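During the no-cost extension, the postdoctoral fellow (Dr. R.K.) reprocessed legacy sequence entries with the updated structure-token encoder. One reprocessed record is reproduced below for audit purposes.
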Amino acid sequence: MKQLIVITGASSGIGAAMAQAFSAKGHPLLLLARRVEPMEALQLENTICTSVDVTDATAMKAAITAAEEKFGPVGGLINNAGVMLLGAADVQDPAEWSQMLNVNVMGVLNGIHAVLAGMKARKTGTIINISSVAGRKTFPNHAAYCATKFAVHALTENIREEVAMDDVRMITIAPGAVETPLLSHTTNDEIKSGYEDWKEFMGGIIEPKSIADAAIFAFEQPQNVCVREIVLATTRQQP
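Re-encoded structure tokens follow.
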């Protein structure tokens, strides 16, 4: 059996596409999200589906330990869970900032903390963090969201340098606009409408499968090759 892959935020969008892609490659999976039913509906072989809030480090570690007991050590972790709550800095509810920081940053660090020591000890392993083009440049109404994604870029590169000599790979994938339910988290209807107009102007945006294909490409490189960062978006996306 191939290496165990752990995917957070696997109930829809990019996470679900990742699950299907890695399962098709023969990997056993641990799928983590708040909602179990959509993950189970994927009907993937050799897969454990567990309801976990990524901000709960203890629950995440317990779920990973249970999966390792069945499928062996984690070979790859995909930190995909995230929320996007857009708003102007002077009007957005600070509670939304806290939610994004907790899920998008602490959730990623919790996943890394759960697997990294084992990977270092085994001298192998791959962690893929799903960031965003908004982790490389700013956008209107994205201040707090951009802050979280800039953090993902920074922490990934920082840890990559720390573990390079342990043959552990740290990879950032930064998509542009992707056809996922992520925008539905935003509470401002005017911002959501503008976002939809932008998508229409571009003639559509990329599908989650394209992100999953990029992850497969990076993961399947020899362990001594680290694709440090992949940035991809629909050709017509200008910013």
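The chain has a mean pLDDT of 95. The longest helix spans residues 94-122. The remaining legacy entries will be reprocessed before the final report is submitted.
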